[in-house]
Amino acid sequence: MLVNSEQITEALIETVQMVSFSLLFSAVLGLPLGVLLVVTRKGHLLENLLVFNVLSGIINIFRSIPFIILMVAIIPITRFLVGTSIGTTATIVPLVFYAGPYIARLIENSLLEVDPGVIEAAEAMGATPGQIIVRFLIPEALGSLVLAFTIATIGLVGASAMAGAIGGGGLGDLAITYGYQRFDTVTMLVTVGILIVMVQGLQSFGNILARKIRRR
């Protein structure tokens, strides 16, 4: 049985939902982690090597696990949180575990690009660490942060497609179920084409937005 346009549209909507919600929850997790990785490192605002080393180690552990293995490894957690381990909603859980630490590292790298002189000037004006983070550090790195989230979003698109291997729904599930298992070459090509367009569109949008922010 060949796939029709309604099935492709439904799969596309599922992919967009997975990527959107997982990006939101991953950002909520990754942003504070990324900031902590920066401000607790040696010589920074809130130097605390114990916190930095423990947090960095935990993030490295999660980043070392391939997504397909991570999905299987945290099935009990996924079932506890959403009541099932398959489908679009269930896939969001491992996507967050996968992307949260990744975003934290991207944010860390973006914030470390900020000129130390900006922080020194803020300290000289009597700003508190919290004020420096919110009013100086993050705004100065905003253009780089936009590119970081663009990269993270594209990574989530790829991971969401990979989730189709174990019934995660979306375009990946459609490609594997019909394109691979039923030898439907047209469906495979269409899903790959849609994913390419999504990635190209996201990257272009992120580049344009970052460029505009940096010109301000």
From TrEMBL:
SUPFAM superfamilies: MetI-like. The keyword Metal-binding does not apply. NCBIfam families: PRK10782.1. It comes from the Bacteria. It comes from Oikeobacillus pervagus. Its main location: membrane. This is D-methionine transport system permease protein. It is found in: Cell membrane. Keywords: Cell membrane, Membrane, Transmembrane, Transmembrane helix, Transport. InterPro entries: AA_ABC_Transporter_Permease, MetI-like, MetI-like_sf.
